[in-house]
Amino acid sequence: MNDVWAMDFMSDRLFDEQPFRILTIVDCFTREALVTAARTKFRAYQVIDELDRLARIRGKPRSIRVDNGPEFSGRLLDQWAYLNKVELDFSRPGKPTDNAYIEAFNSRLRQECLNASWFLSMDDARNRINAWRADYNETRPHSSLGNLTPSGFAAQLNETRKVA
């Protein structure tokens, strides 16, 4: 079981001003960007679908850090967390430092991908955002991870767990 994930939403627009949202989920220990899902609208059940998909792949976290936005304060997420024995850790209003890992990740995503791109369609946005996420996870070393990439650190961690 993983420790803690952080989850948030971002917004951007296509070239024709059509807005879209991006659900971002980061593993707070490995710093891996687990999800960057872009949609024109996010419903609560779609957030749950992403969490279920991710939990099947990686296992369930002990807790998920979220802000107090309406996307995360609904009954569906609360029910999912209760049924899966996952604690929802809400940040204090006006205190983005309570969820620093996701805020730092979202800042990089905004600066390096969203602000640098002109998205022609939702498919174009999804492809570019996911390509950026793959680059972030697989080719960028983090000093906080001993200059390993997030994916490299996670792989090393999994090998250590197998030996232990």
Task: Characterize the structure shown.
The protein is of the alpha/beta class. The chain has one domain (2-103, 113-163): Ribonuclease H-like superfamily/Ribonuclease H (Nucleotidyltransferase, domain 5, 2-Layer Sandwich). The protein has five helices and five strands. It has a five-stranded mixed β-sheet, sandwiched between helices. A hairpin with a 5-residue loop joins strand 2 (19-27) and strand 3 (33-39). 27% of the residues are buried. The mean pLDDT is 90. Residues 1-158 form the Integrase catalytic domain. GO terms for molecular function: nucleic acid binding. This is Integrase core domain-containing protein.
Q: In what order do the strands lie side by side in the largest sheet?
A: 3-2-1-4-5
> What's the Cα radius of gyration?
16 Å
What's the overall average pLDDT, rounded? 90
What is the structural class?
alpha/beta
**Beta-strand fraction estimate:** 15-25%
CATH topology, what is it called? Nucleotidyltransferase, domain 5
CATH architecture descriptor text: 2-Layer Sandwich
Largest sheet: 5 strands, mixed
Q: What oligomeric assembly is this protein in?
A: single chain
* Span of the ends, CA to CA: 15 Å
Protein name: Integrase core domain-containing protein
GO molecular function: nucleic acid binding
GO biological process, one term: DNA integration
Pfam families: rve_3 (PF13683)
